[in-house]
Amino acid sequence: MVKFTRRKVRNKFYSNRRKLAKRKVKDLPDLQLQSTDNVYVSESLTPYKKRVFANVNKLRKHMKWKYIWTNNARIYIKDGENAEDAINIIDTEEDLVKFQNRHCC
Questions:
Q1: Is residue 28 located within the same domain as residue 54?
Q2: What residues of the chain score a pLDDT lower than 50?
Q3: Which of 27, 30, 69, 76 has the smallest number of CB atoms closer than 10 Å to its CB?
Q4: Quick one: pLDDT at residue 18?
Q5: Quick one: 67 and 93 in the same domain?
Q6: pTM for this prediction
Q7: Strands 67-71 and 87-90
Q8: Are residues 12 and 54 in the same domain?
Q9: For residues 91 and 28, what is the distance between their CA atoms, to the nearest angstrom?
């Protein structure tokens, strides 16, 4: 886990984190990782956003959707790997209720 103390470093890291997924562990600084370890970046969320994220994640598991992530405190959810699959953005509990009404039984 990493905690950023400088906004400039954090922003640069977040803007390049897609590249991180394509990097091999051997390309990273010495972090005591094995070559088979996955690397994840987690951003700090407010207690309210953590609650919303937890509820979205429960719904994602129930609906068997594949992806959930955050970026700049916004919660994104996506059904599959296809580029044409819609990415849904959920910011509040109200957004979650609207999403459930559109996509769930």
A1: no
A2: 1, 23, 25
A3: 30
A4: 58
A5: yes
A6: 0.60
A7: unpaired
A8: no
A9: 33
